[in-house]
Amino acid sequence: MRADVYFGSTCKASKVSRDVLNPYDKKVVSKVSICNEEDAKSILEIAKRASLEAKKIPLHQRISWLLDVALKLEQNCEDMAKTITDEVGKPISFSRVEVHRCIETIKLSANAMLHVNGETIDTTATPSGKKTLAFYKREPVGVVLAITPFNFPLNLVAHKIAPALVAGNAVILKPTSQAPLTAFKLARMFIESPYASPNALSLLYSGDGVNDALVTSEIPRVISFTGSLAVGREITQKAGIKKIALELGGNAATYIDTSADINMAASRCAVGAFINSGQVCISLQRIYVHDAVYDAFAMALVAQTKALHVGSPYDEKTFIGPMINDGAVKKALHWLDVAVLEGAKPLCGFTCKDLMFEPTIMSEVTQEMAIVCEEVFAPIVSLIKVKNYEEAKMKMNHSSYGLQYSIFSNDLKMAQDAIEHLEAGGIVINDIPTLRFDIQPYGGSKNSGIGKEGPKYALLDDYTQIKSVVIC
Hints:
single chain; 472 residues; alpha/beta; Aldehyde Dehydrogenase, Chain A, domain 1; Aldehyde Dehydrogenase, Chain A, domain 2; 2 domains; 15 helices
């Protein structure tokens, strides 16, 4: 099936397209339109005009719009899950989870908009003031540009477009070209809904001149991007004066204390390190283990990892499917080669056939090694032995990223210290840093980006703006 372009409410077949191959069996599963600069400029003008009408749509209709899409997703859950698996190789059980999370995200967005309000201000509070009727209200920003990645090709789209649309904005969606049909099917549900704001959502894909035309234009007032640090920097440099929300990945770490439940921690860490083949921004990459429990934890983690089923993403029992493409595999193998040259040793895994990368645990890893300094984005986790929590804290914070960290400990004071002093946007106690709930604020510090996802927080920070009013 073709993933075509939506110029507002009008779907148009592009003259040029390319095949999208299933990462597992290399079969053609969809065709993505290749767009150009003129497509981008046309969509920008459509969105600009649509934004003037979108803000006039009553809130009850916008809420009904989102709930209608959520219902359609519920009715088409299996088809959408299969589409995700076809395009990105995500195991089918996890694709179903993503669809259900997407439904929740859309419903959360509808509910959150009910609580986006202004407030009155007493202007006699200061000696320089006087009696007035003063208040502020929130209004839509206008046009939002949403750019999304392959690893959660449905739910991360919803995290951007659902709150933006319910706030009364027009949205230009540029999803990953590795999962075009997934985004196309969701966009079609929004656009064909009887409650839709006309032309408020447009969809296009990558091509020559598209990114620059969209990012440098003065029409989008917000750019919301999830992806690599390199592209995030480029957007920041080119965007000009507008709001920018960036989720740029991480180098997630945890600490295993002597007071932790070692078997539980190992079970959860295997999930955190290898779910979605490690292709998650908050994938567990660094595990700092107290030297007193290092051997026991390593043994337990190897056992838990070897129990994970690697195989066809269409098999219900599969935990790890293929990586997204050859480039991702080559990059991951390079990380391992460099780590071995630097003195690290594999405890399990370390093999790859086609795109099927065995979950790999590296031991005897030190803080200076490249494998713990950068985002690996593969099913690879490193064990680092430490003398105590203070050493682990120092080494966890010694990173240019700061998305999510965690500790496994039953020491209350240690937990309190971690909450206060670990330098990340999210801290988890007694579970993996890969834990995320869509209702929460989500986003990092340092090179992990700026801004927060989560419908309520995106509505307040990105998709609405304050207008101050004084009546004398």
